[in-house]
Amino acid sequence: MWSRRNCSLNKTCRYCPHCDLLIAHQDDVEHFLASFFMEEKPEVMGNDYLVIGTLERAVWKRGTQQHITMQEMLDAHEVRNEKLKSLS
To answer: Which residues contact 80 (CB under 8 A, 6 or more apart)?
Structure first.
């Protein structure tokens, strides 16, 4: 079942520059998801999930006030990645 529910963790993670990956502990992520979805949509508990990556702070803050679509999150993620690439 696909829940189509986006959520932003606002979680600080470690970063591996060699792999270009964010590193988060699975149990921390799943604890947050369980707490969030138990209240919001309990029927999706135990389903697979997708972790996308980072968002610009402004996009994250906007998401705390209004719903952000998956496309908006993906677009913000792409913009952030392009900015980071241009800095290297």
So the answer is: 53, 54, 55, 56
pTM over 0.85: no
- CA separation for the pair 81, 88 (Å, rounded): 11
Cβ(55)–Cβ(80) below 8 Å:
yes
Rounded Cα distance between 64 and 8, Å, is 9
Longest dimension (CA), the chain: 43
Sign of CA dihedral 23, 6, 50, 35: positive
- Tell me what pLDDT residue 1 has: 37
- What's the rounded Cα separation, in Å, for the pair 7 and 51? 10
| Residue 33 or 76, more confident | 33
